[in-house]
Amino acid sequence: MDLLRTLCQIAAPAGNEAPMTEFLLNYIAQQQSSWRVQPQVLAGEEFQDCIILVFGKPRTAVFAHMDSIGFTVRYGQELVRIGGPRAETGYKLVGHDAQGDIACTLTVDKQTGELGYEFTRPIARGTELTFQCDFRETETTVQSCYLDNRLGVWNALRLAETLEDGILVFSCWEEHGGGSVAYLAKYIYENYGVRQALISDITWVTEGVHPGQGVVISLRDSLIPRRSYVERIRRIAEQAGIAHQLEVEGSGGSDAKELQHGAQPWDWCFIGAPEDHVHSPDELVDKRDISSMVALYQELLREL
Q1: Looking at the whole model, is its pTM more than 0.90?
Q2: CA 274 to CA 252: how far, in whole Å?
């Protein structure tokens, strides 16, 4: 969990993923010699802040978005959301501008709902603020801001340790409308012929999805994946005896939306651990669901 703690502490809201990109490239350079297969690392201006790792002869690509939700300082003491963070008066926010480090408090106007901050000085407009990280681990759970989607990134990095054939994609902007997966998917399809995708992301605890009962295979959200592809994944999970749950939602989305709306014939399925207290400083995930997420991804990359 030390790696997950580190990932959660890195401020990388949508649009400013560069700090996470830098960390991941350094981590990959340091660790890949111990991995079963050393990947081709694709990064740089052609991919903006995204990273693609190509292992062996890939058949399937795993997409994990690096960005998080947060806030942008507007004018005066007003804040605007990056993505859809939960906002409650008293939340601790951190950031940095030309005058130095910032540790301020979120405020929510009870009448207008307008977001603002309390701090000892004005903060420069355009400054990004993120939740202050308070990473808490017990024998059975982890709790922190930004488990969505640092846990999805962590899952991909764990997968890299034993992956022989496959592609790992670290994408940008997912929390605020997307924008990177379209060109990443086009590049992967045209250069490697891969058109099967798994979305390594985090979903929600709901009345039908419960903590501790296994990783979630999503049958649909606001989009509907191709049923025959999802059924293949379900059969693999069942045959391997990996604990899992099925999710059916009518809203929400992920990097998959750019795959489904793209010009290439991608199949996709969202598979991730469920979390409680979504998009807050206190996101909570059961370790049993984390374990089954890693196990299912390892099995799928072998079998699909």
Answers
A1: yes
A2: 14
pLDDT tens-digit map of 232-268: 999 999 999 999 999 999 998 999 999 999 999 999 9
- Report the alpha-carbon distance of residue 235 to residue 261 in Å, rounded: 26
268 within 8 A of 256, measured Cβ to Cβ: yes
CA gap 49, 41 in Å, rounded? 13
* Cis ω for the linkage preceding 191 (within 30 of 0): no
Reported confidence tier of residue 270, pLDDT bands at 50, 70, 90: very high
**Separation CA 203–CA 205 (nearest Å):** 7
CB distance 152 to 270 below 8 Å: no
Using DSSP, state whether 258 is helix, strand or coil.
helix
Separation of alpha carbons 221 and 248, rounded Å: 6
Name, in order, each residue with C-beta under 8 angstroms of 74's C-beta and a sequence gap of 6 or more.
80, 125
